[in-house]
Design a protein that fits this description.
This protein is an alpha/beta fold and 376 residues long. The chain has one domain: TIM Barrel, CATH 3.20.20.105. Helices cover 40% and strands 18% of the residues. The strands form four sheets. The chain has a nine-stranded parallel sheet with strand order 4-15-14-13-12-11-7-6-5. Strand 13, helix 9 and strand 14 form a beta-alpha-beta unit. It starts with a strand and ends in a 13-residue tail after the last helix.
Length: 376
C-alpha cells in the first residue's frame, strides 16, 4: 500500500473533495497548508494551528538544511516531534528559495550562497531527497528548476527538460517507502509545454503532482492557461498541488479546475503588515478609522482574535509595535483561508460549487473577470 493515497469522495464539475492519507494521519482536500518555513509558522505554535483547523503544514527544506541542519532535526525526532506538530507535514525541495538567490544551475544541480553566512552550498536532486527523508516529512517534493516569467520558449523547455531529468534521479534516489514523493510540472504559461511536462511527469508514477513555476510573475490568465493545460494530463486518483497560491480568487479558480492542495505565505505575511483578509474586501487595520472601533476584525468570524479583541485594540498593537498584533491578525487570516477551503468542500459535496463561488466572489471587489470560476 502506498504511503500517501487520495480517496475522492465528491465531485461537482471538475471540483472535487476527498481525503489524503499520510503516515501521520489524513486530511481533507482541497487543503491549504500554512507555511512553517523554518519549522514554525511565524508567531504561532502547534496548538494555535490545530485550533483554527489546520490539518497539514509545509516546512522548507532549504532553510532547515542550513539551520539547524537535517541531521539535528532527525536526532530530535524528525519534523513532527521537532515542531510539536502531530499531523502531516509536506516539505518543499527548496527550489523556489534557491531561485530567488540567482543560483548557478548545472546538470548536476544548483550552487548558491547561504543566506545565513554566505557559504557555498550545493544541492542535487539526490541530496534534496536525502535531506527530506532525514527530516521525516510525510510528503517530499523533487528538486525542480523554475525560472521567472515572462521567459522564452527555449528557456522554458530547457528548464522543463532538466526538471524531468532531475525527476528521474529523484525517483531513483528515494529510499523510504513509508513516505510520499511528489513530482513537479513545469512549462511556464506555454500550454503545449505544460501538457507535455504533465504527461511525462505522470509517466514516472509519483504519489502526487505539484504544479510549479507559478507565482513568479505570470498574470492571472496565464495561471489559468497553465492549469487548463496540465491538469487533464495528470492521473485523476493522485493529488494535484498548486505551489505558492493563497489568495481568495485564485484558490477558488483553481479548486474549480480540480486542484487539491495549496500553500502560501500570503495570509501570514500580509498579517504582519496589518492587512486583514475579509469576505467583503481586505483592509489595513492600521487605518485611523479603526481607532475607536469596538467591532471584531470580521463579524461572525470564529477565530481567536475575533472572539476576544476589537479592531481598536488590534490597531493599537500595531501602532505601538507590539508583537501580539501580527500574531492575532495571522490567526485571523489563516482561519479565513482555512474556512474558505472548508466552505468549498461543503459546496462541492452538496453540488453547489459554482453558485457558492459566484456568491463569494460577488462580495469581493472586482478583479480580472477572466479568473472567475468555471460556470455551471
Amino acid at each position: 500500500m502506498a504511503a500517501v493515497a487520495l480517496s475522492i469522495e465528491h465531485q461537482d464539475g471538475a471540483a472535487r473533495t476527498g481525503r489524503l492519507r499520510t503516515p501521520h494521519g489524513s486530511f481533507a482536500t482541497p487543503a491549504f497548508m500554512p507555511v512553517g518555513t523554518r519549522g514554525s509558522v511565524r508567531g504561532l505554535h502547534a496548538a494555535d494551528l490545530k485550533s483554527i483547523g489546520a490539518e497539514i503544514l509545509l516546512a522548507n527544506t532549504y532553510h532547515l538544511m542550513l539551520r539547524p541542519g537535517a541531521e539535528v532535526v532527525s536526532q530530535l525526532g524528525e519534523l513532527q516531534r521537532f515542531m510539536g506538530w502531530e499531523g502531516p507535514v509536506l516539505t518543499d525541495s527548496g527550489g523556489y528559495q534557491v531561485f530567488s538567490l540567482n543560483p548557478q544551475v548545472t546538470e548536476d544541480g544548483v550552487v548558491f550562497k547561504s543566506t545565513y553566512d554566505g557559504s557555498r552550498v550545493e544541492l542535487t536532486p539526490e541530496e534534496a531527497i536525502r535531506i527530506q527523508e532525514s527530516l521525516g516529512s510525510d510528503i517530499a517534493m523533487i528538486l525542480d528548476e523554475l525560472i521567472g516569467l515572462p521567459a522564452s520558449q527555449h528557456a522554458l523547455r530547457d528548464a522543463m527538460e532538466r526538471t524531468l531529468r532531475w525527476s528521474e534521479r529523484a525517483v531513483a534516489a528515494k529510499q523510504r517507502t513509508d513516505r510520499g514523493l511528489f513530482g513537479i510540472v513545469q512549462g511556464g504559461a506555454d500550454p503545449d509545454l505544460r501538457a507535455e511536462s504533465a504527461q511525462r511527469t505522470a509517466a514516472l508514477g509519483f504519489d502526487g503532482y505539484g504544479i510549479g513555476g507559478l507565482s513568479v510573475g505570470e498574470s492571472r490568465s496565464e495561471l489559468r492557461i497553465a492549469l487548463d493545460a496540465a491538469l487533464p494530463e495528470l492521473p485523476i486518483d493522485r493529488p494535484r498541488y498548486v505551489m505558492g497560491l493563497g489568495d481568495t480568487e485564485q484558490l477558488i479558480d483553481s479548486i474549480a479546475r480540480g486542484v487539491d492542495m495549496f500553500d502560501c505565505v500570503l495570509p501570514t505575511r500580509l498579517a504582519r503588515h496589518g492587512k486583514v483578509l475579509h469576505p467583503e474586501g481586505d483592509y489595513s487595520i492600521r487605518r485611523k478609522e479603526w481607532a475607536n472601533d469596538a467591532a471584531p476584525l470580521q463579524a461572525g468570524c470564529d477565530c481567536p482574535a475575533c472572539g476576544r479583541y476589537s479592531k481598536g485594540y488590534i490597531r493599537h498593537l500595531f501602532q505601538t509595535k507590539e508583537l501580539l498584533g501580527g500574531r492575532l491578525v495571522s490567526l485571523h487570516n489563516l482561519r479565513y483561508t482555512l474556512r474558505l477551503l472548508e466552505d468549498s468542500r461543503m459546496a462541492v459535496a452538496e453540488g453547489r460549487f459554482a453558485q457558492w463561488s459566484r456568491d463569494v466572489l460577488r462580495r469581493r471587489p472586482a478583479l480580472d473577470t477572466d479568473i472567475r470560476p468555471i460556470d455551471d
